[in-house]
Amino acid sequence: MGAAAADLEARQLRILRRVEDLELAAQQHRIGALSLSDAEAEVEAGDTEERLSALLAARGVHDFAFRRVPADYYDRSLEERRDLLAADSVAQLCKSIVMAWYPWICSLNHVHFSQVNTKAAADVVDCSNPKNSKYYVVIVQYMARLNAENIKNFLYTLNESQIPKKRFNMRLAPEEESLMLTGFVHNGVTCIGMKTAIPVIIDEAITKLDEDFFWLGGGEVDLKLGMRTSEFLNAFNPFVVKCS
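^ YbaK/aminoacyl-tRNA synthetase-associated domain-containing protein, sequence as received from the core. Prediction below:
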């Protein structure tokens, strides 16, 4: 290779790295909008609805609503919950769950042990890289069955097949871990206003609903948040994945 060709290749590599850095910065800014600022974190817990409303409005989401539900809400059928929220269908009822990468657990002679992924040990320790984050918040319908394998395949492709799929399992994060990361208790988890900027994945099925509206947790167990799907997608640009 001549000197001119080598110089051109070096410049192209520098440009590609710069583009990757810019893309990563844009993604970090996007998921940062889903988490709390220091000032917002000082707002009292009783102001959840006001705080989330301000955050949504600031991001250009204007068609949204909050509903208070009875204490026995989760003891009721999906049809009853639909009626309490005045939703059009049970397909609009969704939940936000925190998923995490955990070391691959395998068995040998009935003895279980963890195989440590060297890339994960070095890099995947937080949520700073949306393409290869330790945690993800997944929005899925209550009527659907989550397919973690689809999510794993999506992230494998997103990372250009550089991370071996067999090394990690995508699992539901423990309740206490979810609380620590989001600031929201079980059945109150929402992807808006979290304590930690966690990348968000929304099930493709939700984006295809005719109503263009979905409901999820509103930050408190008895508070639910509904919003225009298209506005949510435009404001927060989550990963859209067929995960059910």
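The chain has a mean pLDDT of 81.
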